[in-house]
Amino acid sequence: MEQHEKDRAYLVYMTAPTQEEALHLARELVRLHLAAGVNVLPGAHSVYRWQGEVHEACECLLLAQVSADALPQCLQTVRALHSYEVPCVVAMPIADGHQPFLQWIAQNSLPPSA
After folding, report:
1. Are 15 and 90 in contact (CB under 8 A)?
2. I need a surface site. Which of 17, 34, 61, 113 has the fewest CB within 10 A?
3. How far apart are CA 15 and CA 97, in angstroms?
4. Rounded mean pLDDT of 79-99?
5. What dihedral angle (degrees, nearest 10) is formed by the CA atoms of 16, 106, 92, 38?
């Protein structure tokens, strides 16, 4: 089944340094209608390279369900609210899924200008 770009839903993968920041991001995205929902998964152990050195940190993962209409403002809002200099925020298009769930994403992540 082929989706039109405007009907597409995205899964936005993010990390945050604390559960408190992750919950703040999640609540704001849902409050602003920039995500239909956000799963917050504490307890991730991240290993990454930053400024030439290998680091390890405990982080929270966030998985947000976002419509194509809301995606640009969602990404902008995460960058504005996030404490990291270079936050991990990646949008992955959802190729297919349970249609009622995909419709729920479209109906519940509509930015005010949409």
Report:
1. no
2. 113
3. 24
4. 96
5. 20
Q: Which two tokens stand for residue 60?
A: 């929270």
Q: Which residues contact 97 (CB under 8 A, 6 or more apart)?
A: 9
Mean pLDDT computed over 2-27: 87
CA distance 27 to 77: 12
pTM: 0.90
Which residues 6+ apart lie within 8 Å of 112 measured at CB?
A: 32, 33
Give per-residue pLDDT as tens, 21-56: 999 999 999 999 999 999 999 999 999 999 999 999
Burial (Cβ within 10 Å: 0-12, 13-18, ≥19) of residue 5: exposed
The fold adopted by the segment(s) 1-107 is Alpha-Beta Plaits (3.30.70)
Q: Is 2 left (phi over 0), alpha (psi -120 to 50) or beta?
A: beta
Pick from 45, 38, 102: which is nearest to 74 by CA?
38
Q: Which two tokens stand for residue 83?
A: 């404490």
- Region 79-89: what's the mean pLDDT? 96
